[in-house]
Amino acid sequence: MEKRYDSQVVTAWVQAIFAAWGFNAADSQTIAQTIIDTDLHGIASHGVQRVQMYDRFLRWGRIKQTAAPAVVHETDISAVVDGHFAMGQLVGIYSMNLAIQKAKQHGFGIVATRNSNHYGVAGYYANLAADAGLIGFSSTNTGPGMIPTNALKGFLGTDPIGFAMPATPHHFIFDVATTTVPQGKVELYLKEGKDLPALWVAKDGQTPVYSHDATVLAGLRDAQSTVGLVPLGGISEFTGSHKGYGLAMIVEIFTGILAQGNVSHEISDQDPTAGICQSYIALDPSLFGDKAAIYQRFSAYLEALRALPAVPGKRVYVHGDKEAAAYTDRIRHGLKIDAQTYSELVAISKRLGVDYQPYLDAFN
C-alpha cells in the first residue's frame, strides 16, 4: 500500500524549516501553506519536493529572507512591483492582492512584477482572484529552459500560464507550462529513476532524450547547454512546436518586458541579481453585465462539456476537475511524497537545526 503523509504535519515541518531560515512566523506559515496547497491539489512537481530548491536559492543568496515587495509605478488599474528578491510566494500574493484590489475598485487590475523568485504554480495566484469572485490570470518567466522552434539551445523559460474563473461545483482552473512539461516533472521522474518520455527534453533542438541521468536535468537551466525542454507541440512546426514557442513569447511580454526586468535568457539561478518577472491580472465580469448570470452560464457550459460522450473507459474532464478530486483524496488520505524528497527534508532540517523527530514520529 502506498504510504501517505498527513498534510498538517507536513505543513508544520515545512513551516519550521522556513522559520529556521529566518522568516517570521506569519511568512513561514504562508510559504508552507502555499507549497502544501499545491501538493493537496495533486501537483507534486511544485509542492514539497521544491523545498530543496528554495533551500538552495536561500544558500546562494538569490532569495532574501527580510526583503519585501513594493510598488514602483502605479495607475488606477495597473502597477509595477519590485519584489526586491523576496520569497516568490510572498511577492506573488502581494502582487495578486494588489490586482484584485484594483479590479474591485475599477473592474480591472494588472500588475507586472520584477526582481521576484520562483513562486510555485501560476494557477495558485489566478485562483486567489477566483476566490474573490473575479477572473484571474498569472504567468511567470523562468531561467532559460525551452528550446525555441529550430533553435539549438534553450532561450525562453517554461513560462507557465495560470487562469481561473469562478464556477460550480468548483472553479475552472487552467495551469500549464508552455513547454511539454514543467521542469519539476522532469525532477520527479529523475528522483523516481524513470526514463523521460519522448518529446519532453531535447538535445541540440532536435534529438529527444530518453534518460533518467541526473546530468540531463543539470543542463536544462544552463544558458550554454544544448539540452532543453521541448515547446508544446514538440520539436517541429509540423507538430505545432511554434504554438508553444509563441505562447512563451506572450508570457515574456507580459512579464519581463512589461515589468522592465529580466527576460528568461538573462536569468541565472545562481545570480542573486537576476530575478524573474511575473504578471497578475484580475477582471470583474460585472464590466459586461450581470456577474452572477455570467458565472451561472459558464457553470452550465462546463456541465455540458462533462456530459459529452467519451471514449470507452474514459470521461471528459474540465480543467480543475482532477485537482478538486486530488484535494478531496489528499485531505482524506494524506499527501504523496517520494523517498528522495523525504530524505531532503531530513537533511535540510539537520543542517538548519530543526527538531524534525516529532514529524518523523507522526509520519511513522
Automatic annotation (TrEMBL):
This is Ldh family oxidoreductase. Keywords: Oxidoreductase. Belongs to the LDH2/MDH2 oxidoreductase family. The keyword tRNA-binding does not apply. Signal peptide: none annotated. It comes from the Bacteria.
